[in-house]
C-alpha cells in the first residue's frame, strides 16, 4: 500500500486513543504490544484497516504517531519513543509484559516474576471499594493474612517483619492504620507498586520474605489533579499541582472520622482490634471501668519535584503516619474515685532526597539519602494495683545509596550500586511499682555493593537477569554474599517457563516479650540482631541471642496465557534460619522459652484466570504448602508445624465491569492455623498448663465471602464522582483466628478465642478534578 492510500484512510476515520486501538489490533492480528504507559498516553490515532497486513499496519502506525513500532518474531511488537522526536537520553526499553490484566485491571504480571499494581487504573476486588495497596496484594496466590490485618501479611509462610516495605525508596516500619486493618499508604497518591515474592533485583537488601516497593508519580506533566473522598472510617484529599514549568507539588492527607462519629464499620473494626487488649480486659474488672476512650489516625504525604534541566532531577519526599489511642481507667479505692489516663501512640516519619541524572541515552545515575523514624509509645495504668508501666520502641534508620544503570543496547543492561545503612533500635520499659527500668539500644552500620546484568533476546523470548549483593557489617566483621537469579523463556508465544532464585539476609526483626505488651494491641517490638552466641546477664536485664536472619529460595513456574485465559503454576522451596521463638509469637509451652531455630516451607501456587473481554474476569487460586519449624532445643529436636502453616488456601472470585459500573464477589477459604491444646484432665498444681505436642492440632477452617460495587459518573463538567459500597464477611461467619489458654486463680483452664471481623459494611464517595 502506498503513502497516498494511507493518508486517505487517515482522513476517513475519527481518531481514538492509541491504547484502545492497540487492544483491537492485538485481537485482530493475535500479537502483543509492549510499551511504557507514559509513552502512549494521550496519543490519538485512527484505526488501521482490517485488510492491512501486519507490516502495513505497523507502517501506518509509524507514519501517524511519533513512535516506532518494531516487530519481533512475528508475534511481539515493542513500542519506543522515536529518537528524532525526543532527546535520546529519555529513550526507554520495556521489559515484556506477560499478563496485562491479572485478576483485575491495574494489576500486571511481568516476565521477571514480579507483579505491578497501578492504583489509578485499579478495577475492583471483592470486599474492596478503594485500591488499598496492602489489601490488594493479598489477592495474589501465596500471599495472605491469617488474622485479616495488613500488619501481619504472610508471604509464602514468612512473618510480616520479613517483608521489605519501601515508600519511594524509603524503608517503612509501620504498615497499617487502625493497628493493622487499613493500609497506612494512601492509594490515591501511589502511582505504582512492585511486588516480588522471589528472584528480586540485587539492589534490594533486607526483606527475606518479599519486597513491596511503592512509588509516587515521578514525572512532571504540568497538569493539575485533585481529589477528595470519604468512607465510614476516614476522609482524605490530595492535590497534584504544577508550581512552574519545571516544578510540581504533590500533597495528600487522610484522617479517621472515628473520634467524631460512630459507624457500623468502626464498631466492627474496634471490636476486632481491641477484643484481646488491656483496654477491653479492664472493662470486665468488677472494680474498674474505662471511659472517655478516643481513637484516631492520620497520615500526611508530600513530594516536591524539581527538574533542574532535561538531564537533572531532584525529588524531596515526606511522610507521617500516626495512630493514637487514649482511654481513662476509673476505679473506686478506699471510697475514693480514681481515674488515670492510659495511651498508645504509633508513628512512622520519613524524609528523603533523591537526585537523578541522565548522562546520555545509555547511562543514568540515581542518588538518595533518607531517614525513617518509627516510634511506638505506651503508658498503661493499673488503678487496682497502683501500677504504671511505660514502654517505648524506637527505630532510627538512615541510609545513603547510589544506583547506576547502563544500557549497552536493547538486549543488554547493567545495574550496579552502593548502599550505606545505619539502623539504631531502642527499647524502654519503666515500672513504678515495684521500681524497675530497662533501656537497651543497639546500632548496626552496614555497607552493601551490588551488581547485575539483564539480557533480553531480540525476539523477546528469553530474559535472563543474574547478579549478586555483597553485605558487610563492620560491628560483627561479617560478609554475606547474596546471589540473585531470574530466568524466563517463552515458547509458542503463549507458554512461558520461569526460574527464580535468591539468597537474602536481614538484621531487623520483631519479637513479642509478653502478650500484654503495649496494652496488648501492638505486641510486637522491633529489635536488632546482636550476633550473641549465648545469653548475657547484666544487673538490670537479660540479653538473649538474636541472630541475623538468612533465607534461600528457589522456585520454578509454568505460565500459559492464550485467548485471555491464564493458567499459572509455581512450585517453590524456601529455607529461613536465625529465627527465635520470641519472633514467632508462641502462646503455648514455648511462650517464655528463648531458642534459635529455622523453618522450611515447600509449596505450590496455582492460578486459573479467565477474562471475558473487558466485562468479566473470573479466577480460582489455590495454594498448597507444608511449613515446619526446626529448633534443636525444642520438641526433642524434631520438626513441628509453623505457627503460620496454612496447608490449603483457596479463592474463588469474579468481577463484572459495564462501563462505569463495577461489581466483584469472592470466597476465601483456608485451613485453620496450627494450635496447641492442653492435655485433657490436666491435674497440674504448679500453676502451669500441660500442653500436648506443639501445634499438633488446628483451628477450624476459615471461610469468608465478600462483595463490593462502584459506580462512576460526571459530577460537573470538570469533575467526576465515584460511589461505592462493600460488605466484608457477607455470611457473618464466626471465624476463630487464634486460640490460647490461661489459668485462673483456682487453677482452672480458660479458653480465649480471638474472632475475625463479623459482617462489615462500608460505603464511599469520591470526587476527582
From TrEMBL:
<dbReference type="GO" id="GO:0009279">
    <property type="term" value="C:cell outer membrane"/>
</dbReference>
<keyword id="KW-0998">Cell outer membrane</keyword>
<feature type="domain" description="TonB-dependent receptor plug">
    <location>
        <begin position="133"/>
        <end position="207"/>
    </location>
</feature>
<keyword id="KW-1134">Transmembrane beta strand</keyword>
<keyword id="KW-0472">Membrane</keyword>
<keyword id="KW-0675">Receptor</keyword>
<dbReference type="InterPro" id="IPR039426">
    <property type="entry name" value="TonB-dep_rcpt-like"/>
</dbReference>
<keyword id="KW-0813">Transport</keyword>
<protein>
    <submittedName>
        <fullName>Outer membrane receptor for ferrienterochelin and colicins</fullName>
    </submittedName>
</protein>
<dbReference type="Pfam" id="PF07715">
    <property type="entry name" value="Plug"/>
</dbReference>
<dbReference type="InterPro" id="IPR036942">
    <property type="entry name" value="Beta-barrel_TonB_sf"/>
</dbReference>
<dbReference type="InterPro" id="IPR032508">
    <property type="entry name" value="FecR_C"/>
</dbReference>
<comment type="similarity">
    <text>Belongs to the TonB-dependent receptor family.</text>
</comment>
<dbReference type="InterPro" id="IPR012910">
    <property type="entry name" value="Plug_dom"/>
</dbReference>
<dbReference type="Pfam" id="PF16344">
    <property type="entry name" value="FecR_C"/>
</dbReference>
<keyword id="KW-0812">Transmembrane</keyword>
<feature type="domain" description="Protein FecR C-terminal">
    <location>
        <begin position="14"/>
        <end position="77"/>
    </location>
</feature>
<dbReference type="InterPro" id="IPR037066">
    <property type="entry name" value="Plug_dom_sf"/>
</dbReference>
Amino acid at each position: 500500500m502506498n503513502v497516498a492510500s494511507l493518508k486517505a484512510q487517515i482522513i476517513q476515520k475519527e481518531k481514538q486513543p492509541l491504547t484502545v486501538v492497540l487492544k483491537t489490533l492485538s485481537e485482530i492480528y493475535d500479537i502483543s504490544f509492549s510499551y511504557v504507559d507514559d509513552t502512549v498516553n494521550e496519543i490519538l490515532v485512527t484505526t488501521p484497516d482490517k485488510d492491512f497486513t501486519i507490516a502495513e499496519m505497523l507502517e501506518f502506525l509509524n507514519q501517524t504517531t511519533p513512535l516506532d513500532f518494531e516487530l519481533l518474531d512475528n508475534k511481539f511488537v515493542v513500542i519506543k519513543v522515536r529518537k528524532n522526536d525526543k532527546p535520546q537520553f529519555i529513550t526507554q526499553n520495556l521489559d515484556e509484559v506477560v499478563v496485562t490484566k491479572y485478576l483485575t485491571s491495574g494489576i500486571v504480571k511481568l516476565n521477571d516474576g514480579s507483579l505491578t499494581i497501578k492504583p489509578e487504573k485499579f478495577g475492583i476486588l471483592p470486599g474492596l471499594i478503594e485500591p488499598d495497596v496492602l489489601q490488594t496484594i493479598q489477592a495474589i496466590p501465596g500471599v495472605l493474612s491469617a488474622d485479616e490485618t495488613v500488619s501481619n501479611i504472610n508471604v509464602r509462610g514468612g512473618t510480616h517483619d520479613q517483608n521489605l516495605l519501601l515508600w519511594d525508596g524509603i524503608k517503612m516500619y509501620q504498615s497499617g492504620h487502625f493497628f493493622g486493618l487499613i493500609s497506612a499508604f494512601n492509594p490515591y497518591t501511589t502511582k505504582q507498586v512492585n511486588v516480588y515474592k522471589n528472584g528480586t533485583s540485587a539492589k534490594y537488601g533486607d526483606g527475606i520474605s518479599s519486597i513491596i516497593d511503592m512509588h509516587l508519580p515521578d514525572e512532571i506533566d504540568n497538569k493539575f489533579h485533585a481529589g477528595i473522598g470519604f468512607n465510614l472510617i476516614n476522609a482524605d484529599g490530595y492535590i497534584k499541582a504544577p508550581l512552574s514549568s519545571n516544578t510540581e507539588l504533590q500533597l495528600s492527607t487522610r484522617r479517621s472520622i472515628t473520634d467524631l462519629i460512630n459507624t457500623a464499620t468502626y464498631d466492627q473494626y474496634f471490636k476486632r482490634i481491641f477484643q484481646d487488649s488491656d483496654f477491653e480486659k479492664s472493662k470486665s474488672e468488677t472494680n474498674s471501668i474505662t471511659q472517655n476512650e478516643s481513637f484516631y489516625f492520620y497520615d500526611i504525604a508530600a513530594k516536591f519535584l524539581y527538574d533542574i534541566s532535561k538531564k537533572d532531577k531532584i525529588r524531596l519526599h515526606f511522610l507521617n503516619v500516626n495512630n493514637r489511642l487514649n482511654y481513662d481507667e476509673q476505679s473506686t479505692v478506699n471510697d475514693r474515685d480514681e481515674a488515670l489516663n492510659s495511651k498508645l501512640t504509633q508513628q512512622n516519619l520519613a524524609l528523603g532526597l533523591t537526585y537523578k541524572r541522565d548522562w546520555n541515552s545509555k547511562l543514568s545515575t540515581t542518588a538518595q539519602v533518607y531517614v525513617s523514624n518509627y516510634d511506638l509509645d505506651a503508658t498503661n495504668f493499673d488503678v487496682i494495683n497502683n501500677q504504671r508501666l511505660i514502654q517505648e520502641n524506637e527505630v532510627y534508620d538512615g541510609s545513603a545509596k547510589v544506583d547506576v544503570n547502563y544500557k549497552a543496547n536493547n538486549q543488554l543492561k547493567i545495574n550496579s550500586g552502593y548502599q550505606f545503612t545505619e539502623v539504631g533500635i531502642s527499647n524502654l520499659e519503666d515500672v513504678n511499682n515495684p521500681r524497675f527500668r530497662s533501656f537497651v539500644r543497639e546500632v548496626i552500620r552496614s555497607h552493601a555493593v551490588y551488581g547485575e546484568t539483564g539480557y533480553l533476546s531480540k525476539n523477546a523470548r528469553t530474559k535472563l537477569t543474574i547478579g549478586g549483593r555483597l553485605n558487610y557489617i563492620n560491628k560483627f566483621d561479617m560478609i554475606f554474599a547474596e546471589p540473585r537469579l531470574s530466568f524466563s523463556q517463552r515458547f509458542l508465544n503463549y507458554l512461558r517457563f520461569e526460574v527464580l532464585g535468591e539468597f537474602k539476609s536481614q538484621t531487623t526483626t520483631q519479637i513479642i516479650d509478653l502478650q500484654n505488651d503495649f496494652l496488648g494491641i501492638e505486641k510486637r517490638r522491633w529489635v536488632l540482631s546482636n550476633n550473641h552466641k549465648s545469653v548475657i546477664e547484666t544487673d538490670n536485664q537479660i540479653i538473649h541471642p538474636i541472630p541475623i536472619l538468612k533465607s534461600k529460595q528457589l522456585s520454578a513456574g509454568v505460565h500459559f496465557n492464550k485467548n485471555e485465559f491464564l493458567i499459572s503454576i509455581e512450585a517453590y522451596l524456601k529455607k529461613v534460619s536465625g529465627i527465635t521463638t520470641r519472633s514467632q509469637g508462641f502462646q503455648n509451652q514455648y511462650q517464655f522459652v528463648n531458642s534459635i531455630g529455622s523453618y522450611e516451607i515447600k509449596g505450590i501456587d496455582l492460578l486459573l484466570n479467565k477474562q471475558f473481554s473487558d466485562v468479566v474476569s473470573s479466577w480460582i487460586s489455590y495454594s498448597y504448602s507444608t511449613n515446619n519449624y526446626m529448633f534443636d532445643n525444642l520438641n526433642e529436636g524434631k520438626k513441628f508445624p509453623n505457627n503460620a502453616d496454612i496447608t490449603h488456601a483457596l479463592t474463588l472470585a469474579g468481577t463484572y465491569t459495564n462501563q462505569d459500573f463495577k461489581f466483584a464477589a469472592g470466597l476465601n477459604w483456608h485451613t485453620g492455623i496450627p494450635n496447641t491444646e492442653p492435655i485433657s484432665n490436666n491435674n497440674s498444681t504448679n500453676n502451669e498448663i500441660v500442653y500436648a505436642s506443639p501445634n499438633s492440632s488446628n483451628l477450624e477452617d476459615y471461610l469468608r465471602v465478600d462483595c463490593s460495587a462502584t459506580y462512576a459518573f460526571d459530577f460537573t463538567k470538570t469533575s467526576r464522582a465515584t460511589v461505592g459500597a462493600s460488605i466484608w464477611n457477607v455470611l457473618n461467619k464466626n471465624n476463630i483466628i487464634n486460640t490460647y489458654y490461661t489459668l485462673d486463680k483456682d487453677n482452672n483452664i480458660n479458653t480465649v478465642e480471638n474472632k475475625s471481623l463479623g459482617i462489615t459494611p462500608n460505603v464511599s464517595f469520591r470526587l476527582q478534578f
